[in-house]
């Protein structure tokens, strides 16, 4: 069969996968990539980057965020619909979400990569089981070391790339609410509802291949993505791999929202990089900006060994938020539908977050995050009012 594109050089050019080249370039260990082209959106003086002001949201803010007027929100000329919010969390409050990702979200009924290897039952807690495995030699990996992903709400099926009615658990109300609030502040959708999420746990040598997220039935609803722990280079492209992606840094606390033309854009994470101390809010020792192994335009890539997850000294850990067993069902169930119950829920969640931050010792979570990046990737699956019967 004749090649339809033969003799049409513009077509050849169009179909060349420039995105893949860029991914390979930033992934490469030897030689390491030049990071001077990676955009630090919050400090960039490029004319392509624009800081925007946000609108008065209609929803009240959930505890732990800076006032919306103070948020630093940026757009990029080559990525319409892409928003970058530089860490809007108040000091100490990223930890609430970090604890949710490490201690709570991996529990049943949610699904995770470990399900393929071990049978986890209701009440099993991967973090706590890992803490008690003090008999392991330092070569053995604990469960939390082997955690790579968790799915919430409608569980994305990695093989079929489909959501199905039978693979669903209640979407955690707190994550639903904070995602709705972010979408509201950006003025993107009044009807946003978080229905599925993937929590990614990256080690220092992890990458995420170029892809677009299109399994959802509602592709107009924005996608909300939170970063915690170590930094990353994210490649943000367009809807064709023939366009060169923009490499951007993502640091702990940063939030990306992909909407409009960016919702279906190709993106990837070719590299995790050690975060500069100044970008890890809980880091006591402020290291100088240019210290080796930190990340900035001119700084070097860490070659730290991902197998050694900050030692195995779990013993002095008190990571629980006091006796919160009574409150657990209320955060792990769905956001109430009617406004009266929602108001009641809202009062509870704010005091729960405060208590949780006040009473917890996050030392071991911080230690875990010395070698890990967590990404919470939140999506709306259905159009408002629709379910599987309508699709
Ligand atoms: O880790 C990230 O920043 C992006 C994750 C992502 O694209 C995904 O889970 O689909
Ligand atoms: Fe994605």
Automatic annotation (TrEMBL):
Keywords: Dioxygenase, Iron, Metal-binding, Oxidoreductase. Fe cation binds at residues 211, 213, 267. SUPFAM superfamilies: Clavaminate synthase-like. It comes from the Eukaryota. Binds 1 Fe(2+) ion per subunit. Residues 193-290 form the Fe2OG dioxygenase domain. One of its GO terms (biological process) is oxidative RNA demethylation. Residues 287-315 are annotated as: Disordered. Residues 287-300 have a biased composition (Basic and acidic residues). GO terms for cellular component: cytoplasm; nucleus. One of its GO terms (molecular function) is ferrous iron binding. The keyword Lipoprotein does not apply. Its cofactor is Fe(2+). This is Fe2OG dioxygenase domain-containing protein. It comes from Paralvinella palmiformis. The lineage of its organism: Eukaryota, Metazoa, Spiralia, Lophotrochozoa, Annelida.
């Amino acid at each position: 069969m004749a090649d339809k594109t033969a003799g049409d050089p513009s077509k050849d050019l169009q179909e060349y996968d420039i995105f893949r080249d860029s991914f390979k370039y930033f992934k490469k260990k030897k030689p390491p990539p030049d990071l001077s082209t990676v955009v630090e959106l919050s400090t960039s003086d490029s004319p392509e980057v624009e800081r925007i002001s946000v609108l008065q949201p209609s929803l009240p803010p959930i505890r732990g965020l800076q006032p919306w007027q103070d948020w630093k929100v940026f757009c990029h000329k080559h990525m319409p619909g892409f928003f970058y919010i530089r860490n809007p969390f108040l000091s100490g409050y990223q930890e609430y979400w970090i604890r949710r990702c490490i201690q709570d979200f991996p529990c049943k009924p949610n699904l995770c990569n470990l399900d393929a290897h071990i049978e986890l039952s209701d009440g099993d807690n991967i973090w706590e089981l890992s803490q008690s495995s003090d008999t392991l030699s330092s070569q053995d990996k604990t469960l939390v070391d082997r955690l790579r992903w968790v799915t919430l709400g409608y569980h994305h099926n990695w093989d079929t790339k489909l959501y199905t009615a039978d693979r669903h658990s209640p979407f955690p109300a707190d994550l639903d609410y904070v995602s709705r609030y972010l979408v509201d502040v950006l003025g993107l959708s009044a009807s946003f509802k978080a229905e599925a999420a993937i929590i990614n746990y990256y080690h220092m040598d992890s990458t995420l291949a170029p892809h677009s997220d299109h399994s959802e039935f509602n592709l107009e609803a924005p996608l909300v993505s939170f970063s915690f722990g170590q930094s990353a280079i994210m490649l943000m492209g367009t809807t064709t791999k023939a366009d060169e992606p923009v490499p951007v840094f993502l640091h702990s606390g940063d939030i990306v929202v992909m909407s409009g033309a960016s919702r279906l854009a190709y993106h990837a994470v070719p590299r995790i990089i050690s975060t500069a101390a100044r970008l890890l809010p809980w880091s006591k020792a402020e290291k100088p900006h240019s210290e080796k192994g930190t990340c900035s335009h001119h700084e070097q890539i860490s070659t730290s060994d991902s197998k050694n997850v900050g030692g195995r000294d779990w013993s002095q850990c008190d990571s629980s938020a006091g006796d919160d067993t009574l409150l657990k069902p209320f955060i792990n169930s769905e956001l109430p539908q009617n406004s009266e119950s929602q108001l009641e829920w809202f009062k509870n969640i704010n005091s729960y977050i405060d208590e949780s931050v006040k009473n917890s010792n996050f030392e071991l979570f911080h230690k875990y995050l010395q070698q890990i990046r967590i990404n919470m990737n939140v999506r709306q699956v259905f159009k408002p009012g629709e379910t599987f019967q309508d699709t």
